């Protein structure tokens, strides 16, 4: 069973407590929340997002008790996980005097959508550098889904094909900003910087608070991983809370080895930012084998997982991230790698607009 958040590092006790009294869960949560106070934040998300049991899905799989953390319900521009990172990234950009932000992604980038929406909400300019990295040229992919939303949001998009054209687009944005006397803050792909990952340290705190209120403990959180910010933030947050909850990622990007390395780099930076030692090496658990033929390329297993989640729980996943993570969860449950006695949280990272870019997969 996952460790009670109250049974944590004995060094973090209230001065009024005796040596024999561990801190309460509420005290641990408050202490961990305070670790984030030094970092500027702009509130953009609708929080907390729901935490709910998936009884029909659990029954269909016949394994562990599955719950879902609904970060698809985070509010901003149809929701998704990126808004949590953007709260801190936008806070940093504004604190540094930026009047414009720029970021990167594929043509159907969920991160780009939420960055554009966050910029609009905060009165900042925004530039999107979008790479044609997925081998698709059908109308739905190149013009529907998030592409429709970029047009509605009214943000400039720069379509590029490689590092050379990307560098040229960045230079053009920088030159135009300099002429206008503006500062551009560049946000990395996926918002996956140490500052961005703080958004998921905060999500870990939120999740543990909800678990305490519901009087349940969780053995494991499972999620899609790519650039590593969501994963690293959750793992660092759970470690800071002493929650004893494992975090398992399913690679959806460029291989688990690269995802592990990205997460490790972020974890090494997050430790000092939170006044702690970095999370131990052996704690990073990111699995290969679920990305298929590459980033943004649907798999049969993900399509089946999307349909199963929709038909048992009414949850809409996407083909690029959450659908592949769901396929990973189904696989490890069926192979007995997650015990029947476990209680597991599936982090729904959003991405439903992508369904309209991949509509042909569901005909």
UniProtKB/TrEMBL annotation:
Active site: 109
Tryptophan synthase beta chain-like PALP domain mapped to chain residues: 46-350
Cofactor: pyridoxal 5'-phosphate
Enzyme Commission number(s) of this protein: 4.4.1.15
GO molecular function, one term: D-cysteine desulfhydrase activity
Modified residues (N6-(pyridoxal phosphate)lysine): 82
Region of interest: Disordered: 1-24
Gene3D superfamilies registered for this protein in UniProt: 3.40.50.1100
Keyword vocabulary terms for this entry: Lyase, Pyridoxal phosphate
GO terms of biological process kind: alpha-amino acid metabolic process
Family note: Belongs to the ACC deaminase/D-cysteine desulfhydrase family.
UniProt cross-references to PANTHER family, sorted A to Z: 1-AMINOCYCLOPROPANE-1-CARBOXYLATE DEAMINASE-RELATED (PTHR43780)
Protein name in the entry: Putative D-cysteine desulfhydrase
Biological source species: Candidatus Neomicrothrix parvicella RN1
Taxonomic classification: Bacteria, Bacillati, Actinomycetota, Acidimicrobiia, Acidimicrobiales
